Fold this sequence. Notes:
Number of helices: 2
Number of strands: 3
Strand content: 25-35%
Distance between the termini: 22 Å
Helix content: 25-40%
Largest sheet: 3 strands, mixed
Low-confidence stretches: none
Strand order of the largest sheet: 1-2-3
Amino acid sequence: NSEALTKRKFLFTYSSPEIFIELDESKFIQILNNLMTNALKFTHDNDVISLEILEKEDSVLIWFIEI
Length: 67
């Protein structure tokens, strides 16, 4: 439902404009899709869904937060 999508705001933050990691692209996209679907499903109207990506020395942290 496109109307439901317009009742939420999105915030995207990251620690670096370019982050390079080795991964299985199709599985990674599937995981992001699942996380976004869950965030949309469980976030209340007029709330903010925040996607944050943080590059660490040996890893990259990705998380969705409802604000």
